[in-house]
Amino acid sequence: MLQDNQDKVTITHLISNRIWGGDVAYAYDLIDTTREKLPNYEVRVFTKEVENIKGRFVEQGTHFGVLPLKGVIDPISYVKLSRYIKTGKHIIHVHDFKDAFTATMAKVISSNRKNIRVVVTRHWIKPAKTDFFSNLTFKNIDKLIFVADLGRREFESSSPKIDSSKIVVIHNSIKPKQVDAPTEDLRSAYGIPADTPIMMMHCRLSPDKGVDVLLTALKDLKKDYHAVIIGNGEKEYTSYLDSLVDQYGLKEKVTFLGFRKDIPNLLPQCDFGLSPSVFREAFSLSVLEYMKYGKAVIATNNGGSVECIEEGENGLLIPPKNPEELARALSVLIDDKSLRERMGERAKSDYENKYSYDRFFETMTTLYNSLFTQN
């Protein structure tokens, strides 16, 4: 049953995703850290009835309930949410724009409106919609967070009707994680010689991540390397990737590890990281992870990675869907150990000085604390 807690400000996250991705991981880590470091806030989560999402938040101890979360066509969600927030002080933090409509409608129809704030984190890069429902949402949100300045600029390119004082850019970050489970040594487990560079890619295996582009780039790459790819995906696409490995003769050069929970133990074992995304990543968490562990990164130049990767200094930027340019960049890092090590050192320094989780969370804390002190 929906209840409220009047003793603290309650932050309620709405998660309508059906698959685990970077935006859900962002929310999960933010919730974890808020519970750990901000005792003046109560933190709760509503999800859809999707077991692989709901279950993770149940294990975390923050799952509070299930809502349909279908956006404009779903009055059930915002009516129930309005009842939940009818007393006490509430921050509703959402990570999908259709949930922003649900949150703002719950706020509008609630008798407790003056004690409700809506925060939206926008995890993608595209112009704002300018229809009636979007403008109504913009009017009633309190803060709109972009995870990269590119996302903000693209959003504003369509001239949405929103007060600019509501807009803020807070770059993504990666929460440090300790994984106690034993992890194999990749070189020993897969017979990779000590002087063979290991390139690594970890992501959801889907066409928009460019895994097939990587395999095509490797097809004619006559170099000494080993590619380790971590993640799972739809069977149709993973079968396609397997067929490419067979077709291109890459069985001895490419290893798929599948889904892994011990990624923080695997990343330090690679020589450089890869993020050849086809779609426009808002601000890639995987890129930040490689930087955190002091690894040079090859990333596409069509998204927010251009804000953290400086060409030739801490990584290399390539156009999307371009296996030839990707192969060229791979050759540069495979051939030059001192270069990739220098880039890795710079990447780690940039992460620690600009994108650390402590820095990110301090900024988020300031934002949360300001919501009930600003006029």
Q: Could you walk me through the main structural features you see in this protein, from its secondary elements to its overall organization?
A:
It contains 14 helices and 13 strands. The protein is α/β, with parallel strands linked by helices and 375 residues long. It has two domains: 9-173 and 357-370, Rossmann fold (3-Layer(aba) Sandwich), CATH 3.40.50; 186-354, Rossmann fold (3-Layer(aba) Sandwich), CATH 3.40.50. Strands 3-2-1-4-5-6-7 form a seven-stranded parallel beta sheet, sandwiched between helices. A six-stranded parallel beta sheet has the order 10-9-8-11-12-13, sandwiched between helices. Helix 3 packs across helix 4 (97-109) and helix 8 packs parallel to helix 9 (235-248). The longest helix has 19 residues, at 337-355. It is elongated.
Short description:
This protein has 375 residues and is an alpha/beta fold. It has helices at residues 22-37, 51-60, 75-84, 97-109, 132-140, 149-156, 186-190, 211-218, 235-248, 263-266, 285-292, 323-335, 337-355, 357-370, and strands at 9-15, 41-47, 63-66, 90-94, 116-122, 143-146, 167-169, 198-202, 226-230, 254-258, 272-275, 296-300, 315-318. The model is unreliable at 1-6 (pLDDT under 50).
